[in-house]
C-alpha cells in the first residue's frame, strides 16, 4: 500500500511515446520538485492512475450463474467452487486502488506548484482540469474499494474502507481503523462535487467566448485557450459526465439491500435523481441509440471512430484497439480457432424471454421445449452462440452437442464449451483467427454505457416510487424498461403485454428490471456484483444443455460453493496481519 517518494520512470503522456531502458540513467530517477517545472512529468502521475483503472471486462461472470469457463486454473472458477479466502481473493482491489490513491494524493498536494504552460491563462485552466481529473479518479477508486471490501464487521457495524486524505510517507501511521460505509460514500460524493466543478460535462471545442462555461471564465475567455485545455484533444479523460456516472454507481450500491443499515443515508429516490440527470442530458427515456445493445459489433460505427469521439451508446471508453482480435482469440469456438473461454449457462439462456415479451415459464409465452431457440428475444442470438448458430467470417455452423463430432462439442477439447454455449457478445464476427489468414479489426472496451445508467434509474425509481411513479421526472421505471424492451424488439406485436402486467406490481416490476439488467449487461462483469448487492442466491447450480439431433438434455455444469458471509468481500489477509486496528468483515478469517 505504501509508495516510495522516489518515482521511477513515470510514464509521460506525449506524442513521442515511452522509451525503455535496460538500465535506468540518473536523470530518470526524478524527485517531486522536478514536477513543478516539468508538466509532462507531473501529468504522468495521473497517467499511471488511468492505466490502473479496473478492467470493464474482468470476466467475473465465470463466478456467477451466467457463465462458467473451460480454463480449469481460472481464479474466478476456483473462487466460485470453494477457494475464496481473504488471502486468495481475485476480486480484491485493495493494493492497486490504494497505490493509485497515493499517486493522486501526492499529485493534489503539489498540483498548484506546477507550471502547466507558458500562457498564464492556459496554465490556470490546466490546473483546474487536472485537479478535477484527480478528484474524479480518487472517487472512482474509492467506489471500487467499497464495492469489493465494504461490509458488516462481527459487531454488526457497516464499515467501508480506509480513508487516506493525504499522501502517506514512511513516517505515517498506517495502523488506522476502517471508516464507516457512510463516511466513505460522503467522501466519494465530495470528490465528485469537486470533479464536476472543475471539469466540463464533455470535452468539446467552442467557437465563441459565450460558449465557455461560466465557471471557467475565471481562467480564460479565449476560445483557443479553452479548446487547448478543455476541447476535443482531451476526450477520453475524466469529465463531468463520468463523475455523474460514478455518483449513480455509488448511490446504487449504497441503496441496495446488502447495505441497508440505519447508519446509511443513501436512498433509492436520491439514486434515481442522480441517474435522471444523465438521462435528461441524453435526451429522455427514448434517447437510447437503436444500436446501443450491439455496441461491440456495430462495425461501421467502430471503424469510423476518430478524434476521441464516442459512439452514441458510450459515456466513457478505452482507446481504440486497431487490427485486434484478442477477444475473438479467447472466446471464439475452437472451429474458429478460439479457446472458447466464456461459456454461457442454461440459466442465462432461460432468462431471455420470448419474442412476445413473456418469460419462457409463463403460460402465455408460446415457448416450446422441443424447439427452445425458436421465437426468442432477438438479443439471445446476438449475445450467445447456441447449437446450430452460425458464426465467424464464413458464417460457419456451430454444433455444440457432445455427439456432434465437432471440436465445438461439449468437453471434446480443453477449448470446447462446458455448457453447450459460447459467448457471442463482445466479439466481431468479421475477425478471422485462422492462422493461415489471420486478420483483426478495430475494437474498444467500454468503461460506462448509457444503458447502464438507464437501468439504474429504472431499478431505483421502481423502489422509490413504484413502477409508474416519476418522482418529479418526465419518465418512470416503466417508461425506461418499455424503451429498452422496444429497442430489443420484444413485445412489439402485442403492446408488450407482460410489461403491462408488471407495471401494477412493484415486486413483479423489480424482477423484470433485474432480468433486463441481467440480459442487457451480460458478460460485462456486472452479474457478480449485482447478485451480492441484491443478496440473491449465490449457489445456483450452473447448468448446460446438450443438444444432439432432437434430444435436449439438461445437465449440471458446475456447482457453486459460497457461504452467506460472502455477500461482502474480505479485507486482505496480508493487511490484517500488519494492522491490528483493521477490522475484518464478518465470517472471513
Automatic annotation (TrEMBL):
Keyword Transcription regulation attached: no
RagB/SusD domain span: 313-588
Location(s) in or outside the cell: Cell outer membrane
UniProt keywords, alphabetically: Cell outer membrane, Membrane, Signal
Family matches, as SUPFAM superfamilies: TPR-like
Keyword Membrane on entry: yes
Pfam families cross-referenced by the UniProt entry: SusD-like_3, SusD_RagB
Location of the SusD-like N-terminal domain: 56-206
Family the UniProt entry places it in: Belongs to the SusD family.
InterPro entries: SusD-like_N (IPR033985), SusD_RagB_dom (IPR012944), TPR-like_helical_dom_sf (IPR011990)
Cited Gene3D superfamilies: 1.25.40.390
UniProt-recorded name of the protein: RagB/SusD family nutrient uptake outer membrane protein
Signal peptide (from-to): 1-20
Amino acid at each position: 500500500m505504501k509508495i516510495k517518494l522516489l518515482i521511477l520512470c513515470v510514464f509521460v503522456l506525449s506524442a513521442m511515446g515511452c522509451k525503455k531502458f535496460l538500465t535506468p540513467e540518473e536523470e530518470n530517477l526524478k524527485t517531486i520538485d522536478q514536477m513543478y517545472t516539468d508538466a509532462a512529468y507531473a501529468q504522468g502521475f495521473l497517467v499511471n492512475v488511468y492505466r490502473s483503472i479496473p478492467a470493464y471486462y474482468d470476466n467475473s461472470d465465470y463466478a456467477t450463474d451466467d457463465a462458467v469457463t473451460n480454463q480449469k486454473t481460472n481464479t474466478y472458477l476456483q473462487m466460485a467452487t470453494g477457494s475464496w479466502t481473504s488471502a486468495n481473493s481475485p476480486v480484491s482491489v485493495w493494493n492497486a486502488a490504494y497505490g493509485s490513491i497515493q499517486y493522486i494524493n501526492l499529485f493534489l498536494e503539489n498540483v498548484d506548484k506546477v507550471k502547466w504552460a507558458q500562457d498564464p491563462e492556459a496554465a490556470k485552466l490546466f490546473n483546474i482540469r487536472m485537479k478535477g481529473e484527480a478528484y474524479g479518479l480518487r472517487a472512482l477508486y474509492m467506489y471500487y474499494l467499497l464495492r469489493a471490501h465494504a461490509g458488516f464487521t462481527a459487531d454488526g457495524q457497516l464499515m467501508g474502507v480506509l480513508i487516506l486524505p493525504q499522501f502517506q510517507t514512511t513516517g505515517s501511521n498506517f495502523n488506522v481503523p476502517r471508516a464507516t460505509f457512510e463516511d466513505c460514500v460522503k467522501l466519494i460524493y465530495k470528490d465528485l462535487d469537486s470533479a464536476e466543478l472543475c471539469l466540463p460535462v464533455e470535452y468539446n471545442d467552442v467557437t465563441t467566448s459565450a460558449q465557455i462555461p461560466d465557471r471557467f471564465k475565471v481562467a480564460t475567455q479565449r476560445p483557443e485557450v479553452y479548446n487547448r485545455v478543455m476541447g476535443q484533444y482531451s476526450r477520453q479523460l475524466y469529465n463531468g459526465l463520468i463523475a455523474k456516472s460514478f455518483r449513480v454507481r455509488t448511490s446504487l450500491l449504497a441503496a441496495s439491500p446488502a447495505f441497508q443499515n440505519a447508519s446509511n443515508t443513501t436512498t433509492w429516490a436520491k439514486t434515481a435523481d442522480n441517474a435522471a440527470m444523465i438521462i435528461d442530458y441524453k435526451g429522455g427515456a427514448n434517447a437510447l441509440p437503436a444500436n446501443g445493445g450491439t455496441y461491440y459489433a456495430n462495425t461501421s460505427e467502430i471503424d469510423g471512430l476518430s478524434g476521441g469521439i464516442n459512439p452514441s451508446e458510450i459515456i466513457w471508453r478505452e482507446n481504440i484497439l486497431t487490427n485486434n482480435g484478442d477477444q475473438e482469440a479467447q472466446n471464439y469456438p475452437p472451429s474458429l480457432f478460439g479457446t472458447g473461454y466464456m461459456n454461457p449457462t442454461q440459466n442465462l439462456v432461460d432468462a431471455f424471454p420470448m419474442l412476445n415479451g413473456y418469460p419462457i415459464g409463463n403460460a402465455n409465452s408460446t415457448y416450446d421445449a422441443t424447439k427452445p431457440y425458436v421465437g426468442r428475444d432477438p438479443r439471445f442470438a446476438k449475445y450467445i452462440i447456441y447449437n446450430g448458430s452460425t458464426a465467424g467470417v464464413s458464417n460457419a455452423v456451430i454444433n455444440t452437442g457432445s455427439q456432434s463430432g465437432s471440436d465445438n462439442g461439449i468437453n471434446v477439447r480443453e477449448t470446447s464449451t462446458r455448457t453447450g454455449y459460447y459467448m457471442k457478445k463482445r466479439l466481431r464476427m468479421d475477425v478471422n483467427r485462422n492462422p493461415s489468414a489471420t486478420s483483426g479489426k478495430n475494437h474498444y472496451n467500454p468503461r460506462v454505457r448509457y444503458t447502464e445508467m438507464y437501468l439504474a434509474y429504472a431499478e431505483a425509481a421502481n423502489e422509490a416510487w413504484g413502477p409508474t411513479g416519476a418522482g418529479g421526472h418526465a419518465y418512470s421505471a416503466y417508461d425506461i424498461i418499455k424503451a429498452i424492451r422496444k429497442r430489443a424488439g420484444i413485445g412489439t406485436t402485442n403492446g408488450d403485454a407482460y410489461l403491462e402486467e408488471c407495471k401494477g406490481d412493484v415486486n413483479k416490476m423489480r424482477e423484470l428490471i433485474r432480468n433486463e439488467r441481467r440480459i442487457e449487461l451480460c458478460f460485462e462483469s456486472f452479474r457478480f456484483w449485482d447478485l451480492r448487492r441484491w443478496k440473491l442466491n449465490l449457489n445456483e447450480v450452473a447448468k448446460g444443455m446438450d443438444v444432439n439431433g432432437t434430444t435436449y438434455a439438461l445437465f449440471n455444469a458446475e456447482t457453486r460453493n459460497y457461504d452467506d458471509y460472502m455477500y461482502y468481500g474480505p479485507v486482505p489477509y496480508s493487511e490484517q496481519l500488519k494492522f491490528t486496528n483493521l477490522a475484518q468483515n464478518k465470517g472471513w478469517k
